[in-house]
Amino acid sequence: MPEISQSVTELIDQLGRLPGIGKKTAERLAYHLLRVHVSEAMALSDAIRRVRENVRYCSVCFNLAEGELCGICQDPKRDPVLLCIVEQPRDLMALEQAAVFKGMYHVLLGRIAPLDGVGPDQLTIEPLVDRVRTGNFSEIIMATNPNVEGDGTALFISNRLAEFPVRLTRLARGVTSGSVLEFTNKEILADALNGRQKL
């Protein structure tokens, strides 16, 4: 059987490192990139380069941004007294697609997971506490994922924020325990936001 070229082997290997992409899917993607017009393959390469060069974390909420602030933090129509805490930028995007929440966000960039070696100091919890201390929030919504680590993270944060005169709420449990916000139906997310409960 003839050897596959080194370049193709490297491409399959790199594609196979992507989450959710197994060896067979990586091979299909690699051969697809070889079949399409060179401009289409280069457009993908350019998009990857641009996102790595231009995208950073918002200096206020840690959402993805191409400048100092993300679009949500720059939007004057957002309600500045409501703050929703999420684990990842993709969770923020899922909540935005539900089109119910019109407040501000804070992205933790993870969750407390001692078994994976992730502690509170590796998240954006201290900037969150500073933000609450200097802000004028009336309600903070814990929208961490409804699983053991997400619940533990929400509990840790609620204890850190207990000294502040702010209402702490949690998404209603229309979101199934053990699920991930990113993959949750937008109607269920809207119901969970609207039915949030006091912590």
Summarize the model shown.
Helices cover 44% and strands 14% of the residues.
Structure description:
This protein has 199 residues and is α/β, with parallel strands linked by helices. It has two domains: 6-54, RecR Domain 1 (Helicase, Ruva Protein, domain 3, Orthogonal Bundle), CATH 1.10.8.420; 76-198, Dna Topoisomerase Vi A Subunit, Chain: A, domain 2 (3-Layer(aba) Sandwich), CATH 3.40.1360. 44% of the residues lie in helices and 14% in strands. It has helices at 6-16, 23-35, 38-54, 71-74, 89-98, 125-134, 148-160, 186-194; strands spanning 56-57, 64-65, 79-86, 103-107, 139-142, 167-170, 197-198. The strands form two sheets. Strands 4-3-5-6-7 form a five-stranded mixed beta sheet. It has a two-stranded antiparallel ribbon with strand order 1-2. Helix 5 packs across helix 8 (186-194). It starts with 5 loop residues before the first helix and ends with a strand.
